[in-house]
Input
Amino acid sequence: MRYRKGSQRPDVQKATRSVDMKYEELNNIVFDNIRDFNPVHTFECGQVFRWRPEEEKGEIYAGVAGCNAARIKFSDGKLTIEASGGDQEFWYDYFDLTTDYGAIKDELVRNEPKIEKACEYGYGIRILRQDLFETIISFIISQNNNIPRIRKNIESLCETYGEEIGDIEGKTVYAFPTPEALADADEEELSELKLGYRGPYIIETAKKYLEAGCPTCREELLSMHGVGPKVANCIMLFGLSDVAAFPIDTWVRQIMTDMYGFADKDVKGMQRFAEEKFGSYAGYAQQYLFYYYRDRSL
DNA sequence: CGGCAGGCGGTTA
DNA sequence: TAACCGCCTGCC
Output
């Protein structure tokens, strides 16, 4: 794997270390003694679209986070990251390694015992702290869409408008496009990428992102074209790390009707239930429930 | 062929 | 403010 040096995300949060960390050489980062992490569960639980397994067992994944490409390996509590860019702070933050997921699962089960199976099933899910703009555009694309096509659409977007950041086994890797690049795109170009009616949403949203600055709350997100209640909750959860957000899509709606007897239309009731039962951990609950239920239904 | 996929915007009553 | 409807595209 060859990489060009990528730029780093500027605003990295400081975090308290609970795992061992070694900096072996440039762009080769190791975190040891990690609990509650599983690459398959984390990358396949529907929160992110740009990571692919390199082998059947799912120990190794390759993908891109914002403008940083990487191949990660995880076994026996040791996470090794071979990256084009992003320092140890960036990746520590990205994988949310400061958060104690064991304690979160205990708390969720204590308040709502019926969620235990879902927590056990998706035991290694971590909610990635993703780039805000990438999250906004990705989840605009996700509306009324299916996962294979979402992934495909996002990759074409990156190939067309993203900066080249390296190549992996002969295949070029592209960063997620900047707001500037997408604001400058035109509708015809986008329609060639088969984005459908979401194309204009993307251009308009990129322009607004540049003019009005980063959205910081639900209201600002909802003011963007193509962002409704469900997509806004996804952006809050995955892009703003607001782990109290509880996105209700068709799967979660199914869960709520099956598990808790809600009427199919009663999204408000479901939202209130999540708030009362799961509180500030509702986002984690949503991920466990969604992943468990979707895998059982496939 | 209609139905549907991790919804949304616009229009009605 | 709730209930409909149409929507790009691709796959069944």
